[in-house]
Amino acid sequence: MTNDLAAFAAENGVKYFMISFTDLFGGQRAKLVPAQAIADMQKNGAGFAGFATWLDMTPAHPDMLALPDPSSIIQLPWKPEVAWVAANPVMEGQDVAQAPRNVLRRLIYEATSEGLYVKTGIEAEYFLLTADGSALSDEYDTAEKPCYDQQAVMRRYDVVREICDYMLDLGWGPYQNDHEDANGQFEMNWEFDDALKTADKHSFFKFMTKSVAEKHGFRATFMPKPIAGLTGNGCHAHISVWDAPGDQAKTNVFATEKGEGQTGELGLSEQGRAFLGGIMKHANALAAITNPTVNSYKRINAPRTMSGATWAPNTVTWTGNNRTHMVRVPGPGRFELRLPDGAANPYLLQAVIIAAGLDGIHTDADPGKRYDIDMYAEGHKVRGAPKLPLNMLDALRMYDRDKVLKAAMGEEFSAAFLKLKHSEWDAYMSHLSSWEKENTLDI
C-alpha cells in the first residue's frame, strides 16, 4: 500500500477522499476532499471544528486537523471513485488526546513496547429495518426461534451478499454470514487482525452496512436493544496476544499446552490468564466503554426474550466453551468477551480491552473462579460474583472510581468522556416517557 495518497488516487481512479475520524460517541465525521487537494490534506490535515462534534471542546478552540493514515485506506467497493481513510486528529501540532483513535494508538504503543501485539476479531450484529426504522424490513420474519433461519437469510440475500462480496474484494477474509437470534437480525464474520486494523475495519463495516442497506431501501442499525422482547445487538470481541504484528506473528503468547489450573486446562497461558484477570478486575468500569448508551443496559439486564435467551451477560463471570457468561474461553490461546454491544465505539472498544489487559499482566491479576454452569438457569447459585451495572449512570460512576483504568485510558480522554456522557444521562433523565404517563398519570 502506497503512503502517497495522490499516487493512490492516480493509480486507482479515485476522485474523492473521505477523510474520517470517530468522535467520543462513535459518530463518524468526514470531509469529502477532491483528489487534486489530497496532497495538501495528507501533509496538513483536513480542518474541523471540534465543538461541532461529540468532543469536549468549545467554539473558541482552534481548528482540529484530521491527518489521514494512508495504511487505513479503503476504496469504497460500491462507489470506487471515493476512498475512505481513517484520520488522527491533531491540534496545534499535538495529538488530540481525547480522540478515540489516538487513545487506541497510544495503548497499542504501550503494549508493543512490552513485546505484546494484541489481535482481535469482532462480531458486529445488526438489524435490518424499514427505511424509517419503525419495523423489521421482513414482515415474514416472525419465527419464535429465528436463529440461522435459512429462508429468512435468503429473503435478505441481496443485502448480505453485497456486503460479503465487498469484504471478499477488500481481502478481509469473511468466512460466514447468518441470521441471528432475533427476528430481522444478522451477523457477518471476518478474520481477526491487529487491534488498530480491526478497529478501522469495524468502523468501515458499520459505514458500509448502513450504506448498502440504504441502497436497498432498508435501514441497518447496530443499536443494542432496538426492539423490546428480542435479542439485542452484541459485538463480541475475540482476544489473543502475539509476539509480532500482522503476518510476522509466529507465536500466540496466550496459548499453552493444556495443563493444570483453571485456565491451563483450557489452553490459556499464565500471561493469558493475567490478561483475562485484568478484564475481570475492571469489568464494571469498562462497561461504560463497551456498553456506552442508555439503551445498552436494556440488553445487559433484559428479561427473557422470545427465543428463550438474551445471549448477554449480567454478571462478571467466566467459563470454558459456554455462551452464558461474560467471558468464554472457546479454545486454546484466545478468549471471547461477550459484554460489548453494537453501540461500542470501534476504537475505544479495542483501547479499553488493551488497557484492562495490560493492567492484568502488570499486576498478575487473578480472574477468579471459573464457572461451568448455565448462568441463565443456575446463575442464582453463584455467590459473590459482581453484577454488571444496571444502567449507564452506574457504569459511569464505576468508571470514574476506577483510577487505574481511567489513567490507562488517559486522564484527558476520561475527563472528556465522563463529562459528555453525564450530560447525555441528564438529557435522558429530563425526557418524559410514555411509560411514566401510563404508570403515574393517576397516582
Number of strands: 17
* Whole-number tally of structural domains: 2
CATH homologous superfamily heading of the largest domain: Glutamine synthetase/guanido kinase, catalytic domain
Which of globular, elongated, flat, extended, rod-shaped describes the shape?
Answer: globular
Number of helices: 15
Distance between the termini: 66 Å
Please give the radius of gyration in angstroms. 22 Å
The class by helix and strand makeup works out as alpha+beta
Point out poorly predicted stretches: none
CATH architecture of the largest domain: 2-Layer Sandwich
CATH class group of the largest domain: Alpha Beta
β-strand amount: 15-25%
Name the quaternary structure. single chain
Largest sheet: 7 strands, mixed
State mean pLDDT (0 to 100 scale). Answer: 96
CATH topology of the largest domain: Creatine Kinase, Chain A, domain 2
At a glance:
The chain is α+β, with helices and mostly antiparallel strands and 443 residues long. The protein has 15 helices and 17 strands.
Question: Describe it for me?
Answer:
There is one protein chain. The chain has 443 residues and is an alpha+beta fold. The protein has two domains: 5-88, Ubiquitin-like (UB roll) (Roll), CATH 3.10.20; 107-416, 2-Layer Sandwich (Creatine Kinase, Chain A, domain 2), CATH 3.30.590. Helices cover 36% and strands 19% of the residues. The chain has 15 helices and 17 strands. The strands form three sheets. Strands 1, 2, 3, 4, 5, 6 and 7 form a seven-stranded mixed sheet that branches. Strands 12-8-14-17-16-15 form a six-stranded mixed sheet, with helices on one face. Helix 3 runs parallel beside helix 10 (346-363) and helix 7 packs across helix 10.
